[in-house]
Amino acid sequence: MLRDSVKFSEVAKKKIVAGNWKMNKTIEEGTALAKAVAAGKFSSRVTVVLCPPFINLQSVQKVIARKKSIRLGAQNLYPEPHGAYTGEVSAEMLGAAGVSYVILGHSERRQYFHESDEFISRKIKAALSKGITPIFCCGEPSEIRHAGKHIAYVENQLHNALFNLTEAEISGVVIAYEPIWAIGTGLTASPQQAQEMHASIRKLLKKRFGATTAKNIPILYGGSCNAGNAAELFTLPDVDGGLIGGASLNAEDFIKIANSF
Ligand code: PGA
After folding, report:
1. Is 106 part of the annotated catalytic residue set?
2. What number is the average pLDDT over the span 174-180?
3. Taking each helix axis from N to C terminus, what angle separates 251-258 and 27-38, rounded to the nearest 10 degrees?
4. pTM for the full model?
5. Is the beta carbon of 107 within 6 A of some atom in ligand 1?
6. How confident is the model at residue 12 (pLDDT cuts 50, 70, 90)?
7. Smallest Cα–Cα separation from 19: which of 219, 261, 257?
8. Quick one: how far is CA 189 from the chain centroid?
9. Where do the structural domains in the chain lie, given as residue ranges?
10. Residue 140 needs a FRET pair 20 to 30 A away by CA distance; which of 133, 150, 202, 219 works?
11. How far apart, in whole angstroms, are the C-alpha atoms of residue 189 and residue 150?
12. Residue nearest ligand 1's atom 3 by CA
Protein backbone atom coordinates (compact mmCIF):
# COMPACT_ATOMS: atom_id res chain seq x y z
CA MET A 1 0.00 0.00 0.00
CA LEU A 2 2.76 2.38 1.03
CA ARG A 3 4.72 1.39 -2.05
CA ASP A 4 1.70 2.27 -4.21
CA SER A 5 1.39 5.77 -2.79
CA VAL A 6 5.13 6.33 -3.27
CA LYS A 7 4.79 5.22 -6.85
CA PHE A 8 1.87 7.56 -7.43
CA SER A 9 3.77 10.62 -6.23
CA GLU A 10 6.73 9.67 -8.40
CA VAL A 11 4.47 9.43 -11.41
CA ALA A 12 2.91 12.79 -10.63
CA LYS A 13 6.25 14.55 -10.22
CA LYS A 14 7.36 16.82 -13.04
CA LYS A 15 10.21 15.52 -15.18
CA ILE A 16 12.98 17.73 -16.53
CA VAL A 17 15.16 17.36 -19.61
CA ALA A 18 17.75 20.11 -19.98
CA GLY A 19 19.99 20.63 -22.99
CA ASN A 20 23.47 21.93 -22.17
CA TRP A 21 24.74 23.34 -25.45
CA LYS A 22 28.10 24.15 -23.84
CA MET A 23 30.28 26.40 -26.08
CA ASN A 24 28.46 25.54 -29.30
CA LYS A 25 26.28 27.40 -31.83
CA THR A 26 26.45 30.93 -33.21
CA ILE A 27 23.35 33.09 -32.80
CA GLU A 28 22.10 32.00 -36.21
CA GLU A 29 22.77 28.31 -35.61
CA GLY A 30 21.32 28.48 -32.10
CA THR A 31 18.13 30.13 -33.34
CA ALA A 32 17.70 27.37 -35.91
CA LEU A 33 18.27 24.68 -33.27
CA ALA A 34 15.82 26.30 -30.83
CA LYS A 35 13.21 26.56 -33.61
CA ALA A 36 13.64 22.89 -34.46
CA VAL A 37 13.26 21.89 -30.79
CA ALA A 38 10.27 24.22 -30.34
CA ALA A 39 8.55 22.47 -33.25
CA GLY A 40 8.57 19.23 -31.22
CA LYS A 41 5.64 17.88 -29.24
CA PHE A 42 6.22 17.35 -25.52
CA SER A 43 4.17 15.72 -22.81
CA SER A 44 2.81 18.12 -20.20
CA ARG A 45 4.70 16.05 -17.60
CA VAL A 46 8.06 17.26 -18.97
CA THR A 47 9.76 20.61 -18.60
CA VAL A 48 12.30 21.08 -21.37
CA VAL A 49 15.13 23.52 -20.64
CA LEU A 50 17.46 24.96 -23.27
CA CYS A 51 20.80 26.21 -21.92
CA PRO A 52 22.61 28.01 -24.77
CA PRO A 53 25.73 30.18 -24.39
CA PHE A 54 25.06 33.65 -22.90
CA ILE A 55 25.19 35.34 -26.29
CA ASN A 56 22.29 33.19 -27.53
CA LEU A 57 19.95 33.71 -24.57
CA GLN A 58 17.95 36.52 -26.08
CA SER A 59 17.46 34.95 -29.49
CA VAL A 60 16.51 31.56 -28.00
CA GLN A 61 14.13 33.27 -25.57
CA LYS A 62 12.33 34.88 -28.53
CA VAL A 63 11.87 31.49 -30.18
CA ILE A 64 10.52 29.70 -27.08
CA ALA A 65 8.55 32.61 -25.58
CA ARG A 66 5.19 31.07 -26.43
CA LYS A 67 6.06 27.45 -25.72
CA LYS A 68 4.86 26.64 -22.21
CA SER A 69 6.81 23.41 -22.02
CA ILE A 70 10.20 24.99 -22.82
CA ARG A 71 12.21 27.15 -20.44
CA LEU A 72 15.40 29.14 -20.82
CA GLY A 73 18.54 28.18 -18.90
CA ALA A 74 22.03 29.62 -18.58
CA GLN A 75 25.28 27.72 -18.14
CA ASN A 76 26.84 29.86 -15.42
CA LEU A 77 26.59 33.04 -13.36
CA TYR A 78 28.74 35.12 -11.05
CA PRO A 79 27.60 35.33 -7.42
CA GLU A 80 28.03 39.09 -6.90
CA PRO A 81 25.01 41.24 -7.84
CA HIS A 82 26.94 43.75 -10.01
CA GLY A 83 30.22 45.62 -10.24
CA ALA A 84 33.77 45.39 -11.53
CA TYR A 85 33.89 41.71 -12.54
CA THR A 86 34.98 41.88 -16.16
CA GLY A 87 33.48 39.18 -18.32
CA GLU A 88 30.93 37.98 -15.76
CA VAL A 89 27.12 37.92 -15.69
CA SER A 90 24.95 38.19 -12.55
CA ALA A 91 21.80 36.35 -11.50
CA GLU A 92 19.81 39.55 -11.78
CA MET A 93 20.91 40.05 -15.39
CA LEU A 94 19.94 36.48 -16.21
CA GLY A 95 16.54 36.83 -14.55
CA ALA A 96 15.89 40.01 -16.54
CA ALA A 97 16.75 38.11 -19.72
CA GLY A 98 14.04 35.52 -19.04
CA VAL A 99 16.31 32.81 -17.61
CA SER A 100 14.57 30.37 -15.25
CA TYR A 101 17.34 27.78 -14.74
CA VAL A 102 21.11 27.93 -14.44
CA ILE A 103 23.62 25.08 -14.57
CA LEU A 104 26.05 25.43 -11.66
CA GLY A 105 29.01 23.30 -10.60
CA HIS A 106 29.42 21.56 -13.93
CA SER A 107 32.55 19.40 -13.88
CA GLU A 108 34.00 21.36 -16.83
CA ARG A 109 33.83 24.54 -14.75
CA ARG A 110 35.27 22.76 -11.74
CA GLN A 111 38.13 21.41 -13.88
CA TYR A 112 39.00 24.29 -16.27
CA PHE A 113 38.00 27.23 -14.07
CA HIS A 114 38.93 25.73 -10.70
CA GLU A 115 35.52 26.28 -9.14
CA SER A 116 35.23 24.99 -5.57
CA ASP A 117 32.11 23.72 -3.82
CA GLU A 118 32.22 26.85 -1.65
CA PHE A 119 32.23 29.16 -4.68
CA ILE A 120 29.45 27.11 -6.28
CA SER A 121 27.47 27.41 -3.05
CA ARG A 122 27.63 31.22 -3.36
CA LYS A 123 26.38 30.98 -6.94
CA ILE A 124 23.49 28.75 -5.86
CA LYS A 125 22.40 31.32 -3.30
CA ALA A 126 22.68 34.13 -5.84
CA ALA A 127 20.48 32.21 -8.29
CA LEU A 128 17.88 31.38 -5.65
CA SER A 129 17.75 35.00 -4.49
CA LYS A 130 16.59 35.98 -7.98
CA GLY A 131 14.12 33.11 -8.37
CA ILE A 132 16.34 31.16 -10.79
CA THR A 133 16.45 27.39 -10.32
CA PRO A 134 20.02 26.11 -10.01
CA ILE A 135 20.80 22.80 -11.70
CA PHE A 136 23.57 21.73 -9.35
CA CYS A 137 25.97 19.24 -10.93
CA CYS A 138 27.87 16.64 -8.96
CA GLY A 139 29.74 13.49 -9.92
CA GLU A 140 32.96 11.58 -9.48
CA PRO A 141 36.03 11.11 -11.71
CA SER A 142 36.86 7.58 -12.88
CA GLU A 143 39.70 6.97 -10.41
CA ILE A 144 37.35 7.67 -7.50
CA ARG A 145 34.82 5.20 -8.87
CA HIS A 146 37.49 2.59 -9.41
CA ALA A 147 38.57 3.07 -5.82
CA GLY A 148 34.94 2.46 -4.76
CA LYS A 149 34.72 5.91 -3.15
CA HIS A 150 32.13 7.49 -5.47
CA ILE A 151 29.27 7.56 -2.98
CA ALA A 152 31.34 9.37 -0.35
CA TYR A 153 32.78 11.73 -2.99
CA VAL A 154 29.36 12.91 -4.15
CA GLU A 155 28.13 13.09 -0.55
CA ASN A 156 30.96 15.50 0.16
CA GLN A 157 30.02 17.69 -2.85
CA LEU A 158 26.40 17.83 -1.67
CA HIS A 159 27.45 18.55 1.87
CA ASN A 160 29.68 21.48 0.85
CA ALA A 161 27.44 23.11 -1.74
CA LEU A 162 23.86 22.31 -0.72
CA PHE A 163 23.49 21.29 2.89
CA ASN A 164 23.83 24.84 4.21
CA LEU A 165 20.60 25.77 2.41
CA THR A 166 17.27 26.02 4.22
CA GLU A 167 14.47 23.59 3.43
CA ALA A 168 12.70 26.33 1.45
CA GLU A 169 15.86 27.02 -0.56
CA ILE A 170 16.68 23.39 -1.36
CA SER A 171 13.12 22.97 -2.62
CA GLY A 172 14.07 25.33 -5.44
CA VAL A 173 17.12 23.30 -6.52
CA VAL A 174 17.52 20.62 -9.19
CA ILE A 175 20.41 18.17 -8.84
CA ALA A 176 22.20 16.57 -11.79
CA TYR A 177 24.38 13.53 -11.17
CA GLU A 178 27.01 13.51 -13.90
CA PRO A 179 29.80 10.96 -13.48
CA ILE A 180 32.79 12.72 -15.06
CA TRP A 181 33.93 9.56 -16.83
CA ALA A 182 30.59 9.48 -18.67
CA ILE A 183 30.56 13.09 -19.92
CA GLY A 184 31.16 13.30 -23.65
CA THR A 185 32.81 9.88 -23.66
CA GLY A 186 30.01 7.61 -24.88
CA LEU A 187 30.41 5.67 -21.61
CA THR A 188 26.99 5.95 -19.96
CA ALA A 189 26.49 4.88 -16.36
CA SER A 190 24.67 1.55 -16.26
CA PRO A 191 21.11 1.69 -14.90
CA GLN A 192 22.40 0.03 -11.71
CA GLN A 193 25.19 2.60 -11.28
CA ALA A 194 22.83 5.51 -11.92
CA GLN A 195 20.09 4.22 -9.61
CA GLU A 196 22.58 3.44 -6.83
CA MET A 197 23.90 7.02 -6.85
CA HIS A 198 20.51 8.68 -7.28
CA ALA A 199 19.07 6.65 -4.39
CA SER A 200 22.08 7.59 -2.25
CA ILE A 201 21.58 11.30 -3.07
CA ARG A 202 17.88 11.01 -2.23
CA LYS A 203 18.71 9.32 1.08
CA LEU A 204 21.15 12.08 2.04
CA LEU A 205 18.58 14.75 1.14
CA LYS A 206 16.02 12.93 3.27
CA LYS A 207 18.37 12.79 6.23
CA ARG A 208 19.18 16.49 5.95
CA PHE A 209 15.86 18.01 4.79
CA GLY A 210 13.16 15.41 5.50
CA ALA A 211 11.27 12.87 3.42
CA THR A 212 8.78 15.13 1.65
CA THR A 213 11.37 17.65 0.53
CA ALA A 214 13.76 14.90 -0.60
CA LYS A 215 11.07 13.17 -2.63
CA ASN A 216 10.24 16.35 -4.53
CA ILE A 217 13.77 17.42 -5.53
CA PRO A 218 14.36 16.40 -9.16
CA ILE A 219 17.57 14.42 -9.61
CA LEU A 220 18.67 14.32 -13.25
CA TYR A 221 21.20 12.00 -14.84
CA GLY A 222 23.86 13.37 -17.21
CA GLY A 223 26.73 11.78 -19.10
CA SER A 224 26.40 10.40 -22.64
CA CYS A 225 22.64 10.21 -22.29
CA ASN A 226 21.19 9.83 -25.78
CA ALA A 227 18.07 8.89 -27.75
CA GLY A 228 19.01 5.21 -27.46
CA ASN A 229 19.54 4.95 -23.70
CA ALA A 230 17.34 7.72 -22.22
CA ALA A 231 14.22 5.56 -21.79
CA GLU A 232 16.08 2.96 -19.74
CA LEU A 233 17.62 5.63 -17.49
CA PHE A 234 14.51 7.78 -17.11
CA THR A 235 12.34 4.92 -15.88
CA LEU A 236 14.64 4.25 -12.90
CA PRO A 237 12.85 5.06 -9.63
CA ASP A 238 15.16 7.92 -8.58
CA VAL A 239 15.96 9.40 -12.00
CA ASP A 240 13.73 12.39 -12.77
CA GLY A 241 15.15 13.34 -16.15
CA GLY A 242 18.42 14.25 -17.78
CA LEU A 243 21.05 16.89 -18.41
CA ILE A 244 22.01 16.35 -22.01
CA GLY A 245 25.18 17.65 -23.64
CA GLY A 246 26.17 16.36 -27.08
CA ALA A 247 22.76 14.92 -27.97
CA SER A 248 21.03 18.25 -27.22
CA LEU A 249 22.71 19.74 -30.30
CA ASN A 250 20.56 17.55 -32.53
CA ALA A 251 16.88 18.58 -32.33
CA GLU A 252 15.50 15.22 -33.39
CA ASP A 253 17.54 13.35 -30.79
CA PHE A 254 16.80 15.88 -28.07
CA ILE A 255 13.05 15.76 -28.71
CA LYS A 256 13.18 11.97 -28.57
CA ILE A 257 15.09 12.10 -25.27
CA ALA A 258 12.56 14.53 -23.78
CA ASN A 259 9.80 12.08 -24.72
CA SER A 260 11.53 9.07 -23.17
CA PHE A 261 9.41 8.82 -20.00
P1 PGA B 1 27.21 14.74 -22.64
O2 PGA B 1 27.35 15.94 -21.60
O3 PGA B 1 25.73 14.42 -22.74
O4 PGA B 1 27.79 15.24 -23.92
O5 PGA B 1 27.96 13.58 -22.06
C6 PGA B 1 26.53 16.08 -20.48
C7 PGA B 1 26.89 17.32 -19.70
O8 PGA B 1 28.10 17.62 -19.62
O9 PGA B 1 26.03 18.04 -19.18
Report:
1. yes
2. 98
3. 40
4. 0.95
5. no
6. low
7. 257
8. 16
9. 8-258
10. 133
11. 13
12. 245
